[in-house]
Amino acid sequence: ETGVTQTPRHLVMGMTNKKSLKCEQHLGHNAMYWYKQSAKKPLELMFVYNFKEQTENNSVPSRFSPECPNSSHLFLHLHTLQPEDSALYLCASSQELGTGGLTDTQYFGPGTRLTVL
Amino acid sequence: AQSVAQPEDQVNVAEGNPLTVKCTYSVSGNPYLFWYVQYPNRGLQFLLKYITGDNLVKGSYGFEAEFNKSQTSFHLKKPSALVSDSALYFCAVSSNDYKLSFGAGTTVTVRA
Description:
The complex is a heterodimer of chains A (117) and B (112). In chain A, strand 7 (64-70) and strand 8 (73-79) form a beta hairpin. Chain A is globular, with a radius of gyration of 14 Å. Chain A has strands at residues 4-7, 10-13, 18-25, 31-37, 44-50, 53-57, 64-70, 73-79, 87-94, 107-108, 112-116. Chain A is mainly beta. Helix content of chain A is 0%, strand content 55%. Chain B is 0% helix and 52% strand. In chain B, the strands form 3 sheets. In chain B, strands 2, 5, 6, 10, 11 and 12 form a 6-stranded mixed β-sheet that branches. In chain B, strand 10 (87-94) and strand 11 form a beta hairpin.
């Protein structure tokens, strides 16, 4: 285990539902990330938080809403999703946002497999 | 802009044979290069990284990678592959910030 947990591991939701994904890291890190992984495509960075402050929103649709109440927890709130949003959503953490070196290694959780009907 | 290319979607090798997974990168500035592995229904696991120094980097599970600046490559290697090495491998690059650009991944199958 990497020290990053995600719940739920699987989620099926309708387009009108509201659900949330949860990520928790036990590594004492200060930076947390949300990625989207679709089949046969590179990982897409969605959001980045550093010391609870959002530093990156990679042109993500507003139907995805992140929340970072503290450095250990990260949420992704979902509402009115589309079928094309079905994917594996990965959370990651790193020591902090840096310029290379040991601090930049990102450690990933197991992901939440999301299916939108 | 930065990017990574993994030219092979799939690599198939026999157990005990050498394994190579190719990666080339494009970045302005100094590259920071990473390899991750993903087993079925799991997240990405960090294998190794190159920041500076020796061009040959040793990582977890007997893997190593060689940084070649002139060829802008960072190929992953293992001298003797195991069936348990069968997984999806990702190369990633960053340059002077936290944003990692990932390749599309290479599926490695090691047959017994």
